[in-house]
Design brief:
Structural class of chain A: mainly alpha
Distance between the termini of chain A: 12 Å
Low-confidence stretches of chain A: none
Low-confidence stretches of chain B: 1-5
Helix content of chain A: 40-55%
Mean pLDDT of chain A: 96
Distance between the termini of chain B: 40 Å
Largest sheet of chain A: none
Number of strands of chain B: 8
Radius of gyration of chain B: 16 Å
Shape of chain A: globular
Largest interface: A-B, 20 and 25 residues
Largest sheet of chain B: 8 strands, mixed
Strand order of the largest sheet of chain B: 1-2-3-4-5-6-8-7
Shape of chain B: globular
Number of helices of chain A: 4
Structural class of chain B: alpha+beta
Oligomer: heterodimer
Number of strands of chain A: 0
Mean pLDDT of chain B: 89
Helix content of chain B: 25-40%
Amino acid sequence: MSNLEKYNEAFTTTFEITEDKLPGLKYQDIQAWDSVGHMSLVAALEDAFDIMFDTDDIIDFSSYEKGKEILSKAEYGVGF
Amino acid sequence: MKKRGKELILTKDIIGNQVILRSAREDDAEFTLAIRQNNANKTQYVHALTGSIEDQRNWLSEQEKREDSYFLVFSDLNGKLFGTYGIYNIDFQGKSAELGRAMLIGNPIENLEAIYLVHELAYNELALKVLYTEVFENNTSAVGVNKQVGGVVIGQDYNSEFKMNNLHFEITKENYDKKRDGIKKLVDRFGKRQRRN
Protein backbone atom coordinates (compact mmCIF):
# COMPACT_ATOMS: atom_id res chain seq x y z
CA MET A 1 0.00 0.00 0.00
CA SER A 2 1.40 3.43 -0.93
CA ASN A 3 1.72 6.24 1.59
CA LEU A 4 -1.13 8.09 -0.08
CA GLU A 5 -3.34 5.02 0.17
CA LYS A 6 -2.47 4.64 3.86
CA TYR A 7 -3.11 8.34 4.45
CA ASN A 8 -6.47 8.24 2.72
CA GLU A 9 -7.46 5.08 4.51
CA ALA A 10 -6.90 6.73 7.89
CA PHE A 11 -9.37 9.45 6.89
CA THR A 12 -11.98 7.23 5.28
CA THR A 13 -11.93 4.72 8.13
CA THR A 14 -11.93 7.27 10.95
CA PHE A 15 -14.58 9.54 9.46
CA GLU A 16 -16.54 6.89 7.54
CA ILE A 17 -16.47 8.89 4.32
CA THR A 18 -15.44 8.10 0.76
CA GLU A 19 -12.19 9.19 -0.86
CA ASP A 20 -13.86 11.66 -3.19
CA LYS A 21 -14.74 13.80 -0.14
CA LEU A 22 -11.10 14.18 0.94
CA PRO A 23 -9.67 16.94 -1.31
CA GLY A 24 -10.30 20.29 0.38
CA LEU A 25 -11.65 18.70 3.56
CA LYS A 26 -11.01 20.87 6.62
CA TYR A 27 -11.21 20.38 10.38
CA GLN A 28 -14.82 20.73 11.55
CA ASP A 29 -16.18 20.67 7.97
CA ILE A 30 -18.01 17.44 8.79
CA GLN A 31 -19.54 16.14 12.01
CA ALA A 32 -17.02 13.33 12.33
CA TRP A 33 -14.03 15.71 12.25
CA ASP A 34 -14.67 17.31 15.64
CA SER A 35 -12.20 17.40 18.55
CA VAL A 36 -12.68 13.70 19.31
CA GLY A 37 -12.52 12.73 15.65
CA HIS A 38 -9.40 14.81 15.17
CA MET A 39 -7.52 12.92 17.84
CA SER A 40 -8.81 9.59 16.47
CA LEU A 41 -7.44 10.55 13.05
CA VAL A 42 -4.07 11.54 14.53
CA ALA A 43 -3.88 8.21 16.37
CA ALA A 44 -4.75 6.31 13.18
CA LEU A 45 -2.04 8.14 11.22
CA GLU A 46 0.56 7.55 13.95
CA ASP A 47 -0.23 3.85 13.87
CA ALA A 48 -0.27 3.67 10.07
CA PHE A 49 3.11 5.36 9.64
CA ASP A 50 4.70 4.31 12.94
CA ILE A 51 5.45 7.89 13.95
CA MET A 52 4.68 10.20 16.88
CA PHE A 53 3.31 13.63 16.02
CA ASP A 54 4.68 16.68 17.73
CA THR A 55 1.91 18.45 19.65
CA ASP A 56 2.24 21.60 17.56
CA ASP A 57 1.73 19.55 14.42
CA ILE A 58 -1.42 17.98 15.90
CA ILE A 59 -2.73 21.50 16.45
CA ASP A 60 -1.65 22.70 12.98
CA PHE A 61 -3.27 19.71 11.24
CA SER A 62 -6.21 21.72 9.92
CA SER A 63 -7.04 20.04 6.62
CA TYR A 64 -6.48 17.01 4.43
CA GLU A 65 -3.84 18.91 2.46
CA LYS A 66 -2.13 20.37 5.53
CA GLY A 67 -1.77 16.88 6.97
CA LYS A 68 0.18 15.74 3.92
CA GLU A 69 2.43 18.78 4.24
CA ILE A 70 3.10 17.98 7.92
CA LEU A 71 3.82 14.31 7.26
CA SER A 72 6.27 15.29 4.50
CA LYS A 73 8.45 17.11 7.01
CA ALA A 74 11.89 15.63 7.60
CA GLU A 75 11.11 14.40 11.12
CA TYR A 76 8.31 12.18 9.81
CA GLY A 77 9.72 11.41 6.38
CA VAL A 78 6.46 10.35 4.80
CA GLY A 79 6.61 11.15 1.10
CA PHE A 80 3.60 11.36 -1.18
CA MET B 1 -21.28 13.29 47.83
CA LYS B 2 -22.90 10.63 45.67
CA LYS B 3 -26.25 12.36 45.45
CA ARG B 4 -25.05 15.95 45.53
CA GLY B 5 -21.70 16.58 43.99
CA LYS B 6 -21.91 20.33 44.40
CA GLU B 7 -19.66 20.50 47.42
CA LEU B 8 -17.09 18.37 45.63
CA ILE B 9 -16.60 20.63 42.67
CA LEU B 10 -16.95 23.87 44.61
CA THR B 11 -14.13 22.98 46.92
CA LYS B 12 -11.89 20.92 44.69
CA ASP B 13 -10.68 21.37 41.14
CA ILE B 14 -10.66 18.35 38.88
CA ILE B 15 -7.17 18.06 37.41
CA GLY B 16 -6.58 16.05 34.26
CA ASN B 17 -3.48 15.52 32.18
CA GLN B 18 -3.54 18.94 30.54
CA VAL B 19 -6.82 20.41 31.72
CA ILE B 20 -8.26 21.72 34.98
CA LEU B 21 -12.03 21.70 35.40
CA ARG B 22 -13.57 23.79 38.13
CA SER B 23 -16.73 25.63 39.03
CA ALA B 24 -16.80 29.16 37.61
CA ARG B 25 -16.26 32.01 40.05
CA GLU B 26 -17.24 35.66 39.98
CA ASP B 27 -13.75 36.66 38.93
CA ASP B 28 -14.10 34.56 35.75
CA ALA B 29 -16.69 37.07 34.51
CA GLU B 30 -14.43 38.80 32.02
CA PHE B 31 -13.53 35.48 30.39
CA THR B 32 -17.00 33.96 30.40
CA LEU B 33 -18.43 37.10 28.82
CA ALA B 34 -15.63 37.46 26.26
CA ILE B 35 -15.80 33.85 25.09
CA ARG B 36 -19.46 34.37 24.18
CA GLN B 37 -18.74 37.60 22.32
CA ASN B 38 -15.42 37.17 20.53
CA ASN B 39 -15.45 33.85 18.70
CA ALA B 40 -17.39 34.34 15.51
CA ASN B 41 -17.32 30.72 14.35
CA LYS B 42 -18.81 29.59 17.67
CA THR B 43 -21.03 32.46 18.70
CA GLN B 44 -23.14 32.29 15.53
CA TYR B 45 -24.88 29.35 17.17
CA VAL B 46 -25.54 30.83 20.62
CA HIS B 47 -27.52 33.75 21.94
CA ALA B 48 -25.39 36.86 22.13
CA LEU B 49 -24.54 38.10 25.59
CA THR B 50 -25.06 41.83 25.74
CA GLY B 51 -24.70 42.51 29.46
CA SER B 52 -21.80 44.10 31.28
CA ILE B 53 -19.04 42.36 33.19
CA GLU B 54 -20.90 43.32 36.36
CA ASP B 55 -24.04 41.58 35.04
CA GLN B 56 -21.95 38.51 34.26
CA ARG B 57 -20.35 38.63 37.69
CA ASN B 58 -23.80 38.68 39.31
CA TRP B 59 -24.98 35.79 37.13
CA LEU B 60 -21.94 33.73 38.09
CA SER B 61 -22.56 34.49 41.76
CA GLU B 62 -26.10 33.17 41.38
CA GLN B 63 -24.87 30.05 39.60
CA GLU B 64 -22.47 29.30 42.45
CA LYS B 65 -25.36 29.33 44.92
CA ARG B 66 -27.69 27.09 42.92
CA GLU B 67 -27.99 23.47 43.93
CA ASP B 68 -29.30 22.33 40.55
CA SER B 69 -26.78 23.98 38.29
CA TYR B 70 -23.07 23.97 37.65
CA PHE B 71 -21.34 26.43 35.40
CA LEU B 72 -17.86 25.14 34.71
CA VAL B 73 -14.69 26.59 33.28
CA PHE B 74 -11.70 24.79 31.79
CA SER B 75 -8.11 25.95 31.89
CA ASP B 76 -4.73 24.54 31.00
CA LEU B 77 -2.41 23.58 33.85
CA ASN B 78 -1.10 27.16 33.98
CA GLY B 79 -4.59 28.48 34.60
CA LYS B 80 -5.20 29.90 31.12
CA LEU B 81 -8.94 29.58 30.57
CA PHE B 82 -10.14 28.12 27.28
CA GLY B 83 -13.71 26.96 27.70
CA THR B 84 -17.01 26.64 29.50
CA TYR B 85 -19.70 24.01 29.92
CA GLY B 86 -22.89 23.98 31.93
CA ILE B 87 -24.73 21.15 33.65
CA TYR B 88 -28.07 22.55 34.75
CA ASN B 89 -31.67 21.78 35.67
CA ILE B 90 -30.25 18.80 37.50
CA ASP B 91 -32.80 16.36 38.83
CA PHE B 92 -30.79 14.35 41.34
CA GLN B 93 -33.69 12.02 42.06
CA GLY B 94 -34.44 11.39 38.41
CA LYS B 95 -30.69 11.41 37.69
CA SER B 96 -31.03 13.67 34.66
CA ALA B 97 -29.80 17.10 33.64
CA GLU B 98 -29.34 19.42 30.72
CA LEU B 99 -25.91 19.95 29.23
CA GLY B 100 -24.98 23.12 27.39
CA ARG B 101 -23.35 26.55 27.56
CA ALA B 102 -20.49 24.78 25.81
CA MET B 103 -17.75 26.93 24.36
CA LEU B 104 -14.34 25.35 23.80
CA ILE B 105 -11.57 27.31 22.11
CA GLY B 106 -8.60 25.25 23.25
CA ASN B 107 -6.48 23.08 21.00
CA PRO B 108 -7.90 19.66 20.01
CA ILE B 109 -6.02 17.85 22.81
CA GLU B 110 -7.37 20.25 25.43
CA ASN B 111 -10.88 20.19 23.98
CA LEU B 112 -10.91 16.40 23.93
CA GLU B 113 -9.92 16.20 27.59
CA ALA B 114 -12.46 18.89 28.53
CA ILE B 115 -15.24 16.90 26.86
CA TYR B 116 -14.08 13.77 28.65
CA LEU B 117 -13.87 15.46 32.06
CA VAL B 118 -17.31 17.07 31.90
CA HIS B 119 -18.98 13.77 31.00
CA GLU B 120 -17.04 11.96 33.72
CA LEU B 121 -18.23 14.59 36.18
CA ALA B 122 -21.84 14.23 35.07
CA TYR B 123 -22.04 10.45 35.01
CA ASN B 124 -19.50 9.34 37.58
CA GLU B 125 -19.34 12.15 40.17
CA LEU B 126 -22.90 13.45 39.98
CA ALA B 127 -24.23 9.94 39.24
CA LEU B 128 -26.52 11.14 36.47
CA LYS B 129 -28.03 8.61 34.09
CA VAL B 130 -29.02 10.83 31.21
CA LEU B 131 -28.12 14.24 29.79
CA TYR B 132 -30.17 16.29 27.36
CA THR B 133 -28.70 18.90 25.08
CA GLU B 134 -29.75 20.95 22.07
CA VAL B 135 -27.46 21.84 19.17
CA PHE B 136 -28.09 23.65 15.92
CA GLU B 137 -27.90 21.29 12.97
CA ASN B 138 -25.40 23.55 11.16
CA ASN B 139 -23.01 23.48 14.12
CA THR B 140 -21.13 20.49 12.73
CA SER B 141 -18.46 20.24 15.41
CA ALA B 142 -20.95 20.37 18.30
CA VAL B 143 -23.22 17.84 16.60
CA GLY B 144 -20.14 15.68 16.07
CA VAL B 145 -19.08 15.87 19.71
CA ASN B 146 -22.51 14.84 20.93
CA LYS B 147 -22.54 11.86 18.59
CA GLN B 148 -18.97 10.90 19.58
CA VAL B 149 -20.00 10.65 23.25
CA GLY B 150 -22.97 8.47 22.43
CA GLY B 151 -25.69 11.05 21.93
CA VAL B 152 -28.79 10.17 19.94
CA VAL B 153 -31.07 12.68 18.23
CA ILE B 154 -34.53 12.28 19.73
CA GLY B 155 -36.21 15.27 18.14
CA GLN B 156 -35.78 18.56 16.36
CA ASP B 157 -37.49 21.88 15.87
CA TYR B 158 -36.98 24.96 13.75
CA ASN B 159 -35.53 28.05 15.41
CA SER B 160 -36.97 31.07 13.65
CA GLU B 161 -34.50 33.47 15.28
CA PHE B 162 -31.45 31.60 14.00
CA LYS B 163 -33.29 30.24 10.94
CA MET B 164 -31.99 26.71 11.33
CA ASN B 165 -32.98 23.37 12.78
CA ASN B 166 -32.28 22.66 16.42
CA LEU B 167 -31.42 19.04 17.22
CA HIS B 168 -32.43 17.54 20.57
CA PHE B 169 -29.92 15.00 21.86
CA GLU B 170 -30.27 12.41 24.58
CA ILE B 171 -26.98 11.06 25.94
CA THR B 172 -27.55 8.14 28.27
CA LYS B 173 -24.84 6.88 30.60
CA GLU B 174 -25.26 3.48 28.96
CA ASN B 175 -24.43 4.92 25.54
CA TYR B 176 -21.62 7.09 26.93
CA ASP B 177 -20.07 4.05 28.57
CA LYS B 178 -19.84 2.36 25.16
CA LYS B 179 -17.75 5.28 23.89
CA ARG B 180 -15.87 6.04 27.09
CA ASP B 181 -12.95 3.64 26.74
CA GLY B 182 -12.12 4.88 23.24
CA ILE B 183 -12.18 8.50 24.38
CA LYS B 184 -10.16 7.76 27.51
CA LYS B 185 -7.52 5.96 25.46
CA LEU B 186 -7.08 9.07 23.33
CA VAL B 187 -6.94 11.32 26.40
CA ASP B 188 -4.29 9.09 27.97
CA ARG B 189 -2.33 8.70 24.73
CA PHE B 190 -2.02 12.42 23.98
CA GLY B 191 -2.48 13.95 27.42
CA LYS B 192 1.15 13.76 28.49
CA ARG B 193 2.65 15.31 25.37
CA GLN B 194 4.10 18.75 25.84
CA ARG B 195 4.33 21.61 23.37
CA ARG B 196 7.76 22.74 22.21
CA ASN B 197 7.52 26.32 23.52
